[in-house]
Amino acid sequence: MTASTSSTPEPAHRPARPGAYPDGRTPLADAVLAVARRDIATFHALPLSHGRSIRDSHMRETYEALFGAAQLAADVSYSGTMLDSFFRPRGPLREAQRLAARSFGADATFFLSAGTSTANRVALTAMTRPGSRVLADRSCHQSVHFALNSLGVSVAYAPMQRCCEDCPRTYADLPRLLEMFRAAAVEGRPYDTVVLSAVSYDGVRYDLPTVLAELAAVHPGVAVLVDEAWGAAHRFHPRLRPLTALHAVETLRAADPRFTMNVAVTHSAHKSMSALRQGSYLHLIGDGEARERTAQALFQHHTTSPSWPVLASLDLARLQAETEGEALLGRSLGLARTLRVELATDPRLSAYRPLGPDGHLTDPAQLVSDDPTRVLVDISALGITAADFRRMLFDEYALYVARESGDAVLFHIHIGVDEATLLRLLDALRTIQRTYRSASEALAAGTSEHFIIAYPPGIPITVPGEKLCERTLSQIDTLRSSGCEIYTLRNPTVSAGALAAQAAATGALPVPAGHLAAPPPTSERLAGAAAAVSAAGTTAATVSAAAATAVATAVATS
Predict the structure, then answer these.
(1) In this structure, are 353 and 379 located in the same domain?
(2) 331 and 425, same domain (yes or no)
(3) Domain boundary among 471, 492, 513
(4) CB-count exposure of residue 523 (10 Å: 0-12, 13-18, 19+)
(5) Where is the Orn/Lys/Arg decarboxylases family 1 pyridoxal-P attachment site domain (predicted)?
(6) What share of the chain is helix, strand, coil (3-state, %, to 5)?
(7) Does 417 reside within a domain?
(8) Each residue of 194-204: pLDDT tens digit?
(9) Minimal CA–CA distance to 342: which of 424, 404, 265, 262?
(10) In this predicted model, what pLDDT tens digit does every residue of 451-473 receive, in sequence order?
């Protein structure tokens, strides 16, 4: 073998269990903190370090408000013996990586500050050669597909399947993947590499002990990349640990010392642990050649200007997970369970329907199960789109939900969600239901007791007493799709028949202010509703001044 262009991490001596090193050491974080505390002037790069380039700038206040003096001091460009070399670590970075490998149960661990997309590319570059055969999980992250497309390998994709008609989640058809793997081995053309996406964005977990055992039994020389981006923290709780990749390998090794399969596992630490954005671990199980190839691939693909604060946060996140992870994840599991129970039992939350983990991914033959820290919720009964629901939570309640799937949204109960945060969410959900549930009920076939108004132009589609037929409902859907907002106003103390009779006798349609629905939260929606009724006054239906004033309490659906 030719001389290495980069050094590999020192092989770790794996602990008997996670969290077995409560000595509180964070060597890399301590080293970065030490240089941050020194008033070092640099003639190299990063003028912003220690805030030097903005000391007399009119933008200094904004910089410091965003990043803080400590962050500016810690963001340094030192390398080599002054701190450590990223590609040839000899000091605190090497020690931090060694501690992480011991904690996670890997032979070696690399820290990356460029995200797991880069970690996946590094791993695949190291594990494949031009012309080799790769079997990939079709549900893998785009970074896997892009990397495979550029490596000159032959790729076959295992198909995906949907959970069920009631649940929009998709995942790899693992029984079919294993069939393809066995068939290739029988034909004498085994796959050299298999790629799995073990913990999905939507909360699907793979039965990695079974899958990895089957792969090893059929073709022991296969290399496996497990993209476990969303499951880094799972290692540190006994309920979640058994399905993790590195624990599965530990179990297989304990059962058969001849286990020699090379396995790479990538973790987006910032998704489930207390690491800064783009902090990622790349763990390896395998021989020295695999580690050397990975180190060289890291040199090819990672930025030569790594973020030392991000790397230091990986060191801190590892120690927190060792010492506090089980308690924090236990809280997350309890809060997720509370959310599901509240949605299922509180009548003030009856518009929300949790999808899984109760009754969906329960067939062990599919080799998948639910991630209990994720709660997928159907909101279709509200009568608003999932996109508008997400936007409302963010704009009006300062709550962010990243994922929508059809009429469902996904709540990730990670270790940063505490009891107070969950109470905020539940209060917001109750308020939204009070506001929007009646609007959804108004848009049902039958005799309407509502004004239903599209804005623009602000002309009623129906008035109280008219029937809502399928054609009218289709028209409402078309208007909504074209960007119109749909408003509903109801007088619950007067029947639709009485309103219709009154309209026929007087030509007016009174809408008393005291009987309108609860107000939506934003001033923009109030203004839009007022404009809608104002415009409606130009039609044959006369809307009273009281109604125009009271429209501030109209229910809006979009």
Answers:
(1) yes
(2) yes
(3) 492
(4) exposed
(5) 26-357
(6) 45, 15, 35
(7) yes
(8) 999 999 888 89
(9) 424
(10) 788 777 777 887 777 777 778 77
Report yes or no on 523 lying in a domain. no
DSSP states of 134-162:
EEEETTS-HHHHHHHHHTT-EEEEE-EEE
Backbone angles phi, psi at 545, to 5 degrees: -65, -35
The CATH number for 366's domain is 3.90.1150.10
Q: How many CB atoms within 10 Å of residue 512?
A: 13
Beta pairing, strands 450-455 & 403-405: unpaired
- Residue 433, φ and ψ in degrees, nearest 5: -65, -45
In a 13 Å sphere around the CA of 418, the CA atoms on its Cβ side amount to 1
CB under 8 Å, gap of 24 or more: what pairs does 445-448 form? Answer: 445/469, 445/470, 445/473, 447/496, 448/496
Question: Is 333 found in the same domain as 422?
Answer: yes
Strand 204-206 vs strand 403-405: parallel, antiparallel, or unpaired? unpaired
- Sequence-distant (6+) residues with CB within 8 A of 390 are 401, 404, 409
Instruction: Give dist(CA 297, CA 299) in Å, integer.
Output: 5
**Residue 385: which domain range?**
325-441
Both structure tokens of 150: 């550029």
Same domain, 336 and 378: yes
Dihedral over Cα of 359, 364, 368, 372: its sign = positive
Same domain (yes/no): 420, 487: no
- Per-residue pLDDT for 306 more than 70? yes
Measuring CA to CA, how many Å separate 173 from each of 53, 309, 416?
54, 39, 32
Give pLDDT, residue 358. Answer: 57
Token digits of residue 301: 């693909």
**Rounded to 5°, angle at Cα 208 from 151 and 409:** 85
Residues 336 and 420 in one domain: yes
- Tokens standing for 250? 């530990």
Q: What's the CA gap between 224 and 535, in Å, rounded?
A: 64
Q: Which residue has the tokens 């799709």?
A: 481
Output the domain CATH number for residue 450. Answer: 3.90.105.10
CA distance 393 to 160: 31
Q: What are phi and psi of 53, to 5 degrees?
A: -75, -5
Nearest to 238 by CA among 309, 299, 326: 326
Integer angstrom CA distances of residue 67 from 33, 46, 75, 149: 16, 15, 10, 38
* Residue 258 in this model has a pLDDT that exceeds 90: no
Segment (H or E) for 370: strand 368-370
Full-model pTM: 0.77
Residues 346 and 427 in one domain: yes
**Lowest mean pLDDT: which of 67-71, 79-83, 261-265, 385-389?**
79-83
Burial (0-12, 13-18, 19+ Cβ within 10 Å), 311: buried
